[in-house]
Amino acid sequence: MLAAEKNHELTQVGPGTPMGEYLRRYWHPIAGASELSSNPVKPIRLMGEDLVLYKDLSGNYGLVDRQCPHRRADLSYGFVEECGMRCNYHGWLFDADGSCLEQPYEDQAAPEMRFKEKIKIKSYLVRELAGLLFAYMGPEPAPQLPDWEPFSRENGFVQIVTADIPCNWLQCQENSIDPVHFEWMHGNWSIRLRNKGEPYGPKHLKLDFDEFDYGLLYKRITTSTNEQDPLWTIGRVLLWPNAFFLGNHFEWRVPVDDTNTLSIGWFYKPVPLDRRPYQQTSIPSWHSPIKDETTGRWISTHVINQDIIGWVGQGAITDRTQEHLGQSDKGIVMFRRRLFAELEAMKSGAPLKALIHEPAKNKCVKLPVAGHSTLPDNGVESKFTMMAGQPEWVRKAQEEAMGQPIDNHGIV
Fold first, then answer.
1. Domain shared by 214 and 96, yes or no
2. pTM score
3. How far apart are CA 87 and CA 69, in angstroms?
């Protein structure tokens, strides 16, 4: 368990809070690039700050304060120009650096005052990579935006899926270092949800946890594996500080504020050999529902939806003073201790974990991988089981890529 003040230290993410300042020193995915194709302006809330993400007519991205510094109009109703975004109230124009480029009436009424040069709006860096838009909200110079190896893979269908999670980021991320939940939440519970009389799945027999340059690892042996299995010799990755990597996909838990999290996943599926070479022209991005509109209950039919039930069931912010941690929670203890050590490192100006500063080191960066392949599985199961609500147009695009029909109904 944690003392209340220590729990606050890890869970509060607003400006000026220890964890908020720490997480701002990392790049975070905030949207799929294709989201801005139909509407180039999107309101965004990140770490307690209300912002606007946009793509101007030149194809440049910006992330700026949601309130116009003139008379505080809502810039999410603004519109893009060749360079930057313009407020719809009085036409003030801002570029991605936050500089005010135009003030239409002031510029003609009193040009000698050069008023626009005195105005600057809050802005943050935005970069596109692998169909994702990443933001950096910390001090300059910014670290490299990590170029993880999966982003360079070919002959695969990629989709980006977001969901709004009504709880704190930390309880979502602690799931990334909790192997036993796979046995029960995704294995045994799914058996019961299907109302099958089949026996429970393999049991966990042995766990181990380790640390590497870019995160933490959990390793496991079950009644169906042994010490030669990659899940023991390699393990799976908690990607620092707020992601999970499973070989063919990433899951990020991006803090919206203290009691809300943006789940954003990047999913790669290799196409069959007879469909190669395959080149994806556009990476679809879609939003996944987490609650059944008919029953009002959380959706439990897909893998990450099941995880979400575990996260939100702990409350908006887990009361860690009431926990009773056991042997399976050694990875969670390791994670928390490292977070506290990182906060101390930030205070002293020491290097922080997993940041890449040298461009030469940021080329197709490899991560530990247990059991993934760029080759399709035998039979090529194309069903998307990770998150509920895949839109029909995305399903059809995936069918076209795979060359076979896809049935997304039923429980995982």
1. no
2. 0.96
3. 10
Read off the amino acid at residue 362.
N
Query: Is 10 inside a domain boundary?
Result: no
Q: Which helix (H) or strand (E) holds 207?
A: strand 204-212
Other Cβ atoms closer than 10 A to 49: 20
* DSSP letters for 39-58: -SEEEEEETTEEEEEEE-TT
H or E element, residue 129: strand 123-129
Residue 297 lies in a domain: yes
- Which one, of 191, 173, 181, lies nearest residue 237 by Cα? 173
Residues forming a β-bridge with 217: 210, 237
The verdict on 389 and 276 lying in the same domain is yes
Residues 140-190 pLDDT 10s: 999 999 999 999 999 999 999 999 999 999 999 999 999 999 999 999 999
The token pair at 259 is 């009691």
Query: Residue 88 sits in which domain range?
Result: 38-136
Position 378 scores a pLDDT of: 52
265 phi, psi to nearest 5 deg: -115, 145
Burial class (CB in 10 A: 0-12, 13-18, 19+), 6: middle
Q: Is 17 within a domain?
A: no
Residues 6 or more apart whose CB falls under 8 angstroms from that of 77 comprise: 41, 88
Q: Pick from 103, 136, 169: which residue ends a domain?
A: 136
Element (H, E) at 306: helix 303-312
Per the DSSP assignment, residues forming a β-bridge with 208 are: 219
The closest of 264, 267, 272 to 242, measured between CA atoms, is 264
